[in-house]
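Subject: design request, 204 residues
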């Protein structure tokens, strides 16, 4: 694995999301409630600073193909740089987590950044294969856990689309112009959130 690394800027300061030109949907609450409850369990058991290493990989190639094009790394790096729970995020979590959750846990989340996380990855646009790590996340257990769902959603869809485009290019050859009409077939303008919303409509 080639070393493409990033750390949050010195001192753990996070950058304004708007200035980073990232989709406003991509923020710490773009995750599963499961991840927050796992974080609470780590906090309760004093394991927040345990060193951890998480590998991100996939189990099979899309479209029954023989390769995958890795994509989404840039969005992952931006997410790590800006990771921080806003005051409104914390208030939402206070209303969502079970009654009796200690106030100190919310104070802890309010100060949390990804400054101690190191991310290693293969280069974006690289051919990748099943069960071989494409991203490795190292850092304190609690923050690595909280990054999981968001990193998956940023990589999975991006890699699917990049792989699909590469397959079209291989068939069309180098001298044919290819145009995309992704908006017509995507899962709504915000992908995963649309899937969650309409799954709820269907009584999940």
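Subject: RE: design request

Done. Sequence follows.
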């Amino acid at each position: 694995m080639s070393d493409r690394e990033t750390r949050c800027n010195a001192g753990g300061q996070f950058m304004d999301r708007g200035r980073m030109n990232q989709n406003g949907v991509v923020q710490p609450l773009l995750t599963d409630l499961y991840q927050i409850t796992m974080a609470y369990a780590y906090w309760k058991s004093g394991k927040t600073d345990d060193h951890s290493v998480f590998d991100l990989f996939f189990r099979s190639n899309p479209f029954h193909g023989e390769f995958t094009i890795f994509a989404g790394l840039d969005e992952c790096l931006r997410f790590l740089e800006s990771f921080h729970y806003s005051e409104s995020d914390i208030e939402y979590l206070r209303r969502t987590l079970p009654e009796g959750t200690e106030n100190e846990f919310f104070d802890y989340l309010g100060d949390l950044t990804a400054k101690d996380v190191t991310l290693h990855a293969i280069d974006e646009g690289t051919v990748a294969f099943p069960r071989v790590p494409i991203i490795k996340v190292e850092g304190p257990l609690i923050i690595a856990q909280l990054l999981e769902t968001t990193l998956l959603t940023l990589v999975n869809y991006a890699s699917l689309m990049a792989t699909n485009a590469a397959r079209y290019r291989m068939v069309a050859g180098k001298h044919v112009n290819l145009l995309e009409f992704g908006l017509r077939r995507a899962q709504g303008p915000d992908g995963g959130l649309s899937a969650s919303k309409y799954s709820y409509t269907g009584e999940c």
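The chain has a mean pLDDT of 89.
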